[in-house]
Amino acid sequence: MLRTIGRSVWSGRGHFTSASRSGRVFSTAVETDQWMVWPRETEGNTYSVNWSLVGDGVTPTGEAYRNARVGLLTSKLSAKPSSGKVELKDPTYFGDFKLQEAGDASLSLEAFEEMSESLKLELSREKELFVEDAALGTFGCVRIGVRVVSSTPAMAMISRALLVPVPPRECDHRARFDGWNLDPLWQSGETEKVWDGEKYIINNSPAPAKGIRPIVALVGGASTTTAVEFVQKGEQIVGANVVVGTQAPVRGLIEAIGHAATVLINEQQSASLALPSTSFTKGSNTCVVIGADDSITNALVSDKTIYGAYHNVVTETGLSACWNGSLGVAAASSTSVPSVVVGGKSANALIPDNLAGVPTHYAFYEKGAKKGSLAEADAVKKIVEIVGESKAELAATLLKGAKCSIVGSAADLSSLA
Hints:
The chain is of the alpha/beta class and 417 residues long. Among the domains are: 1-40, no CATH class; 42-176 and 211-269, 3-Layer(aba) Sandwich (Phosphoenolpyruvate Carboxykinase, domain 1). Helix content is 22%, strand content 29%. It is built from eight helices and 24 strands. It has a seven-stranded mixed sheet with strand order 5-8-9-12-14-13-7, sandwiched between helices. A seven-stranded mixed sheet has the order 18-17-15-16-22-24-23. Strand 2 and strand 3 form a beta hairpin. The chain starts with 8 loop residues before the first strand and ends in a 10-residue tail after the last strand.
């Protein structure tokens, strides 16, 4: 059963009318024997949200809540929040996962497509969907839009703690990729005729525009799947589809979305260098730890020096954290959204500044390695191995004059900054 995008009610009044969301009634010149009340939107049935989900391949047949009220989310949990926290049994925050990329040897494009279509169908059958539209990137100039779709309010709350909030804006179903959603309808330049009740209005199709939420992550299905597929337009990567099973840990979701974001930022932003990394500040110094694991992140959280937990973007202006929070020991929420506590862990908002200072130190984490200095040229080579040759010149520019080193444990961090 397809979701009804518009719901109509008629009653005998002699002519055709429609009602806006504010309740105002407008009469048209079309003579009928009935009234029509339209649109009949509700909190969980908003046409623009429905259409945008259809554009993502999910056809909602129940309620679909976008950036839902905190009260609505908590009312649907299996336990009541108390003192800024709520204890639940799932999802798991940490555990084994394997991030796969569609097109690699371990995951064909066809296999990803099959998994993705199966998950879209499953989500389409859910009674409730929770959509979190937010972003990665604290600095607006490097920010990239992210959507997380799941069937649980807990996942929506966790996503809200981790992602960077953006100013409220209308939901546009065309806004996935550069050139809108790559649908020829929005790029043809052809005109369309729309009946306004009295006459036809001629509208030109919108010109191609930059996508505002090129990453969409679908969470569902009883699997441990954690996979990313990149979407190309010609030779350019313009978006990413992420599929995560409910048996995968939240840490896997972070890694998948973060990987998608760093690839897109490096592809689309010539002056930005996006790195899988943890960063921290101490005094006037800013340090990026590339390839850091959770032991590094946890140590920096405990030390209260952490800036960006999992992925960071370096520009000549400064350092931007990708994520708004981190996973760790359960703590009461510092925001209006209670922390979801599972197994003594929770997603905790860090709310880093928009920008930290230009990095003064780049450290490469290699577990168990002996701490030591690294030549600037060798550090650039290591970065190029991660992000690709196209960023070689930018990396050399951004690393010029910075200290570079190898670290093997969290204990090595104290001497970096």
